[in-house]
């Protein structure tokens, strides 16, 4: 009989550092926008970057809290009424702290458990976390397109500190 051994590719701390690196970069993209364009500029019918940032704010922190407390909560983007860049950045920092706090409370054993995210999706928690990161990368890419269209050089995508 063959014995199958599994090697760990990334540990929990490295995964959190990876996610927080993406959050740091997305924060810099938000900072790069002039206030008016953050809320009003779009291309091809896509939402302004402020709305994309508010979507991200409505997912990461609230979802991690919901997962750790094992209390599926509905998605609620409408609860955030942020009307200035300063408010978005402050909420970004607050929610990054929430992500960090709850991620650190999540035991490794739970990463393979299924969780009913926002009462809509049943996936393993690790897949939910990858979704949070992937969704942020996707929307940040839209922000890069907007910034370039506005003649603004976006931050380098590999600079995540």
Q: What is the structural class?
A: mainly alpha
Q: Oligomeric state of the chains?
A: single chain
Cα Rg: 17 Å
Distance between the termini: 47 Å
pLDDT < 50 runs, ≥5 residues: none
User: What fraction of the residues are assigned to beta strands by DSSP?
Assistant: under 5%
The figure for the number of domains is 1
Helix count, DSSP H or I runs of 4 or more residues: 6
CATH class: Mainly Alpha
CATH topology: Four Helix Bundle (Hemerythrin (Met), subunit A)
Walk me through this protein's architecture.
The structure is a single chain. This protein has helices at 12-32, 35-40, 49-57, 60-69, 85-105, 125-149, and strands at 114-117, 121-124. It is mostly helical and 161 residues long. It has one domain (17-149): Four Helix Bundle (Hemerythrin (Met), subunit A), CATH 1.20.120.450. α3 runs parallel beside α5 (85-105) and α4 (60-69) runs parallel beside α5. The relative contact order is 0.20. The model has no long low-confidence stretch (mean pLDDT 92).
């Amino acid at each position: 009989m063959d014995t199958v051994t599994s090697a760990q590719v990334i540990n929990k701390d490295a995964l959190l550092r990876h996610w927080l690196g993406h959050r740091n970069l997305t924060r810099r993209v938000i900072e790069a926008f002039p206030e008016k364009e953050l809320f009003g500029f779009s291309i091809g019918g896509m939402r302004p970057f402020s709305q994309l940032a508010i979507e991200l704010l409505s997912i990461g922190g609230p979802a991690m809290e919901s997962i750790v407390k094992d209390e599926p909560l509905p998605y609620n983007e409408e609860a955030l009424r942020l009307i200035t860049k300063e408010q978005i950045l402050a909420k970004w920092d607050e929610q990054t702290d929430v992500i960090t706090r709850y991620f650190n409370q999540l035991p490794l054993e739970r990463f393979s458990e299924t969780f009913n995210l926002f009462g809509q999706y049943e996936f393993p928690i690790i897949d939910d976390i990858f979704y949070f990161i992937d969704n942020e990368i996707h929307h940040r890419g839209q922000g890069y397109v907007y910034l370039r269209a506005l003649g603004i050089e976006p931050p380098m995508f590999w600079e995540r500190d």
